[in-house]
């Protein structure tokens, strides 16, 4: 079974790779607006910059390709670890030893499951890479259009307009996906957000598929669904994850004691168990032999402190992204300002960590490059 910390440890290496990629893409975009000449902001300048879009596309592809081997190796390693760590093998062995099951669980393999998950994940990350290239071009065009309109309209000078547009890009990140909220508002997701969401989903789906293999081989009729603090508690039916977590279900049919697994949890649905951003898993349960685990403890004070730590970490990443922009623009004055801000936020974080011994500094969460 995977707990919250294990999920974070598995997600972070892949997230860090794409943070490196986004940093280089931000710098590359900004570098294309660093040189000012008498034509800057004019229609002729705009046309010239449009012609440079093809070169940016090639450079974005090159940057992403540079990390492709590292990404594939890390994805494979993470999925394998998720698959094996998700299986309660010691519990199965205990039940086998007391003849609760007739099949030795140590003879069951999940090699094919892991191979299939890796193939699916490779395709997923290819799509993310494609969207990242498209997002890079869009970010470039947003800066180009904003600068042209503001400079030609006399609202701002060229340098001010470019800096405003680039800072806006750094704060938003490079868009990699969009989705529509229930109120109809369209929301853009950055590379960082998309990679985190899709990596979590891939990890958990692999974990659940690995458990499916054991459920099938052990001929289990029941499954137990894990629980965690902060589960979704909105929506109806299986959309409300809090309503079905931490319980035992029948795989086929239902009775007075056990509800049906798929019908209740929505296993396989995008908004159900093992759907997008879901951290719940399930595994074989044998009534009379299996033991329902204790509910995970929830420490509200530690949660609040952790959220405050995340706030400082986001601030550090924000200023590091701004630094990437000004390095691309070769703006020495603002490079110095950003470096000072990064140091200030790092010092504030360290002071906060020192004041709360239950916290530990995680440098990987402050990383952008």
TrEMBL record:
Coiled-coil portions: 335-362
InterPro entries membership: Phage_A118_VSP1 (IPR009319)
Annotated keywords: Coiled coil
Pfam annotation, one family: Phage_min_cap2
Molecular function terms from GO: structural molecule activity
Name of this chain's protein: Minor capsid protein
Taxonomic placement: Bacteria, Bacillati, Bacillota, Erysipelotrichia, Erysipelotrichales
